[in-house]
Design goal:
This protein is mainly α. It has helices spanning 4-7, 16-30, 36-41, 49-159. The protein is rod-shaped and about 175 Å long. The N and C termini lie far apart (182 Å).
Length: 165
């Protein structure tokens, strides 16, 4: 069923796409919402306000998509850069902490060596003190024995009467 408008098209070398396009224009011409002049020009013109609202909504949606996708990509890339910089700062902080711990580890090792040396010296001093205490006890015992011997000899000499007198 060809419409009268489709019949007015010049014949010539038509492709399938041209024929389909002409059929669509003919169908639009029969629609009550499209003027015949608009259909002949290949442009459908909505008549109702709802149609205008739909067109504006679609236009706004298209602009939002066109602007939002690059905007979202930009925001995503900026957030990625911020995260990368924060990660770099964190890595540097951890490296500094590791270096500080290595320095402290060297100091701790030196301190442990010093403690071990001090422990050896303490044990030697303790052993020497025990030896000195033992010697002191022996000396005190010998001194006490000598004092006792001295007292006994003094008491003997006091008890004896003198011979000459």
């Amino acid at each position: 069923m060809a419409s009268p408008m489709a019949e007015n098209w010049p014949a010539g070398d038509l492709t399938d796409d041209d024929a389909e396009g002409r059929w669509m224009i003919a169908e639009l011409a029969q629609s009550p919402h499209v003027s015949k002049a608009s259909a002949a020009n290949g442009m459908a013109k909505p008549v109702s306000e709802l149609g205008k609202t739909r067109i504006w909504a679609a236009l706004i949606r298209d602009f939002a998509i066109i602007l939002a996708v690059p905007g979202a990509l930009y925001v995503g890339l900026e957030l990625y850069d911020v995260q990368a910089k924060a990660t770099d700062v964190h890595v540097k902080a951890v490296e500094a902490e590791v270096e500080a711990l290595q320095t402290q580890g060297g100091a701790v090792a030196k301190a442990l060596d010093l403690l071990a040396t001090q422990k050896v010296l303490f044990e030697q001093d303790r052993q020497q003190l025990q030896e000195l205490q033992g010697q002191t006890l022996q000396f005190n015992a010998r001194l006490q024995q000598l004092q006792d011997d001295l007292q006994q000899s003094q008491s003997r000499t006091r008890r004896r009467p003198s011979r000459g007198g």
